[in-house]
Amino acid sequence: TATNSTGSTVATNAGISFTTSATTGTYYYVSPSGVDAVGRGSAGSPFKTLAYAAKQVPAGQNNTIYLNAGTYTETEGTLLPLGVNIEGAGESNVTVTASGNLPTPGVDQSSSDFKLWHDGSLIQLVSPIYSGSNPRYGSPQEMIAAQDGNQSISGFTLDGNNSTVKAGLWVLNRNNVTVHHVNFRNFKQTGAVFTRGDMWWYEPLPEGKWMKNLKVYNCTFTNSGSDDGQQEGCLIIGGIAGAEIYNINITDDNGEGI
């Protein structure tokens, strides 16, 4: 029964009809011919790079960065906020790449642990992992629960420029992430990583600290695995509970598949 502000009945169950839906966000546009400047992002005045657009789009509102057809040569990694989607004009129409290794300020790329870190990836969906003195590694008790990303990535190609770029996509400690119709090719280490972060191998992951609700489908990986003694796969997953992964096509002449 529905009542008005004074408590009078205005409808019973048979007379109530309503629908609910997710919040419809705003589209922000990017084009190779655009300009990276504050106040842009409309269809008529798009941004130029994905990384810059990701800094301007408000988080947590189901907003979408739309990549118009063309090639985007990024000069820094894209840090994608919670609740922001990326949608491209199609795998054969949009390519996101870099001219070589992406800068990682304050990070030692020569470290033996660099392969475990998201730094150097083209697109990064990163949430905090540990609450202790080392934000990258700690005890299970210091693990921070995954944040709800509530976001999707689709419709473009990520290119590692002849294996000079570390990785294409790195999703770290985020729930509710969907990736589909993305082509990963020619990365130095791996095409895509989905993990809750570096963990103790000798102790079980505590309940409530898994990454959840991952969906990856209709994606292609080409020569994006590596064999440097640990054999990173084209697709890496770890610390995940509840995932749908299907229609994955992998071709690699050096590293592992999944």
Describe, in short, the structure shown:
With 258 residues, the chain is mainly β. It has one helix at 50-56; strands at residues 2-3, 9-11, 27-30, 63-67, 70-74, 78-79, 84-88, 94-98, 121-126, 147-159, 167-172, 174-185, 190-195, 211-222, 235-238, 240-251.
Polypeptide structure, described:
By secondary structure, the protein is mostly beta strands. It contains one helix and 16 strands. The longest helix is centred in the first third of the chain and has 7 residues, at 50-56.
Tell me the number of strands. 16
Percent helix: under 10%
* Number of helices in the DSSP assignment: 1
Q: Determine the strand fraction and express it as a percent band.
A: 35-45%
User: Shape, please?
Assistant: globular
The structural class is mainly beta
Distance between the termini: 53 Å
Unreliable stretches (pLDDT < 50, length at least 5) are: none
**Secondary-structure element string:** EEEHEEEEEEEEEEEEE
What is the arithmetic mean of pLDDT? 92
- The biggest beta sheet, please? 9 strands, parallel
